[in-house]
Specification:
This protein is an alpha+beta fold and 345 residues long. It contains 16 helices and seven strands. A five-stranded antiparallel beta sheet has the order 6-5-4-1-7, covered by helices on one side. A two-stranded antiparallel ribbon has the order 2-3. Helix 6 packs parallel to helix 8 and helix 15 packs antiparallel against helix 16. The two termini are 54 Å apart.
Length: 345
């Protein structure tokens, strides 16, 4: 039964292809032939590439040959033939041929993209940039940066995608400017770039977008900072949870902290000057190190009993002692009165 269905489908497709060929052969004008190429493009079957190649090689009008280049790009066929037409045909066809090559994005076309990105024709430049963004190599970063300076939004987008794919570190300053864009897509592309490159200088751009009310931007920032890993990332996410407990994406932050194998509980020092990290859970024990206001501490354990301590002014407070570890590796105890508790997840 399955074999019968397959045969029927195969025959149906073959008949459909033959119908295109027959219709194209019987067409009397180039406008009719272009309409047939439109239908072939919608069908998107590479089996029809032969008809389109015929139109490219023998089409009388440049409009028909240009359309053939575009359709071959959609069908991912005829790279060599498109390149020949680009080299020998007029400006109208060359423009469409570069679009076709960009759609196919084959490494064989890199020399064409390299030349095209410097062409005087803006459309050729844009299509070449798209192709180079998809298949360019590390040495093409200098060419892709041209797109960042373009006034065309699509060119900028392709340049950012290309630099991200290449993980090019050289242009992080130029890319970071897009993290301040008013357009969502550019901010997300900027954050994706830092997610892939993990350049430490990009962390400030990533961190400031964590609190964005735009869900897509905030999610991209969380994923980007998570890619960096390490204590600095955990510390940043804990600070964010503490400062923005009601943020719509706060659960995503919790998931990322869990993924990073963070501790479950953290403390943030909240004092006017500094807080002493003690060697034991009492205010008479030796001082391990003094902690600045805002220091983030991982909780190792919490003493189950409450204690009272008296400050220099004679004020008595009651709270728990926590055994903690700093991100620099020091271990000791702090009193709960002088910290804020943050649950990682």
């Amino acid at each position: 039964m399955l074999n019968l269905i397959f045969i029927i489908l195969f025959l149906g497709q073959s008949l459909y292809s033959e119908d295109f060929a027959g219709t194209y052969k019987s067409a009397s004008t180039d406008d009719e032939r272009i309409k047939i190429l439109d239908d072939i493009e919608k069908d998107s079957s590479s089996k029809n590439a032969k008809i389109v190649l015929e139109a490219l090689k023998k089409g009388e009008s440049n409009k028909l040959r240009a359309k053939a280049c575009e359709v071959l790009g959609t069908l991912k066929s005829g790279v060599d033939e498109i390149q020949k037409s680009y080299d020998s045909d007029d400006a109208v066809v060359r423009e469409s041929c570069m679009l076709g090559l960009a759609r196919i994005s084959n490494a064989k076309s890199i020399p064409y993209f390299e030349k095209g990105i410097k062409d005087k024709n803006d459309a050729i430049k844009s299509y070449a940039l798209r192709g180079l963004s998809a298949v360019g190599r590390s040495n093409h970063a200098d060419l892709l940066v041209i797109g960042l300076k373009s006034s065309d939004s699509d060119d900028k987008e392709e340049a950012l995608k290309g630099l991200t794919r290449l993980k090019s570190n050289d242009y992080w300053k130029k890319v970071s400017e897009f993290c301040d864009s008013k357009e969502e897509k550019f901010v997300v592309l900027c954050l994706n770039y830092f997610k892939e490159t993990k350049i430490k200088e990009g962390l400030p751009s990533v961190e400031k977008n964590l609190s964005s009310t735009n869900a897509s931007i905030s999610t991209a920032a969380i994923e980007a900072i998570g890619a960096y890993g390490g204590n600095n990332t955990i510390e940043s996410l804990i600070r964010f949870k503490n400062s923005s407990p009601n943020h719509p994406n706060i659960e995503e932050v919790s998931k990322m902290l869990k993924k990073l194998n963070s501790a479950k509980l953290y403390l943030i020092v909240k004092v006017a000057d500094s807080l002493n990290l003690r060697s034991a859970s009492n205010d008479r024990s030796s001082i391990v190190v003094s902690l600045k206001n805002g220091t983030v501490l991982a909780v190792l354990e919490k003493d189950p009993r409450k204690y009272e301590i008296t400050d220099k002014k004679g004020n008595v407070t009651e709270n728990f002692w926590y055994k903690v570890k700093t991100f620099t590796g020091s271990t000791g105890y702090v009193f709960g009165e002088f910290v804020e508790i943050v649950e990682a997840y």
